[in-house]
């Protein structure tokens, strides 16, 4: 078993009138050991059940590392902040319940006919609420195909996202984001042509002076 956290925005699941119809957890079963934190025994065969939380409350951060000699090759500081924040405990509770449900799945026929035991977490850990929470914290990773990681801030500005409506990164001179990470809730398409049209849009003229893109950024960081 291996929990993963999606990066989709939780508000979609919270605020939508049809949220009760949304699947909150995705389960994927595959052969082999997917967990890098678990070393299987030689000669034994393993299967992995992934539990993916679709609309987490937890919100992480990514920042450039402070340095006087930073380069484009330097890795950013990424903190996913799994299970933290005002409602991070709800994410944890959801993961606990889905792991316990997976335990029922693998102990129900026909899977129970071929699965001998739970390897990680063990049956003892699954039954211990505290130890299960610790295991989940240590074994959670981000799922594939994330969107919304550099979402548009909208009216909330920098407090609500990473880029403005013209895809300019707040507070960074001359930097844009042009991919699916700027979407707010759902996966989308057509980001590239939309971005091109916004980038090519001529800057406004004020009092017979034309302000450049960078002038606007500097005036409104």
Automatic annotation (TrEMBL):
GO terms for molecular function: flavin adenine dinucleotide binding; oxidoreductase activity, acting on CH-OH group of donors. Keywords: FAD, Flavoprotein, Oxidoreductase. Signal peptide: none annotated. Residues 56-188 form the Glucose-methanol-choline oxidoreductase C-terminal domain. Its cofactor is FAD. InterPro entries: FAD/NAD-bd_sf (IPR036188), GMC_OxRdtase (IPR012132), GMC_OxRtase_C (IPR007867). Belongs to the GMC oxidoreductase family. This is Glucose-methanol-choline oxidoreductase C-terminal domain-containing protein.
């Amino acid at each position: 078993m291996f929990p993963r956290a999606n990066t989709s925005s939780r508000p979609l699941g919270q605020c939508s009138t049809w949220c009760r119809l949304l699947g909150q957890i995705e389960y994927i079963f595959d052969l082999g050991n997917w967990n890098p934190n678990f070393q299987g025994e030689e000669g034994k065969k393993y299967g992995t059940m992934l539990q993916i939380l679709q609309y987490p409350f937890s919100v992480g951060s990514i920042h450039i590392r402070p340095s006087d000699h930073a380069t484009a090759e330097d890795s950013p500081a990424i903190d996913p902040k799994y299970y933290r924040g005002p409602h991070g405990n709800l994410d944890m509770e959801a993961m606990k319940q889905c792991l316990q449900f997976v335990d029922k799945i693998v102990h129900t026929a026909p899977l129970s006919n071929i699965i001998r035991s739970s390897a990680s977490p063990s049956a003892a850990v699954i039954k211990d609420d505290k130890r299960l929470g610790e295991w989940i914290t240590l074994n959670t990773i981000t799922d594939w195909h994330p969107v919304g990681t550099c979402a548009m801030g909208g009216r909330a500005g920098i407090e609500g996202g990473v880029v403005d409506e013209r895809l300019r990164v707040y507070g960074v001179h001359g930097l844009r984001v042009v991919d699916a990470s700027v979407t707010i809730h759902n996966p989308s398409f057509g980001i590239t042509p939309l971005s091109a049209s916004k980038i090519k849009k001529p800057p406004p003229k004020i009092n017979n002076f034309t302000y450049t893109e960078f002038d606007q950024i500097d005036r409104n960081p």
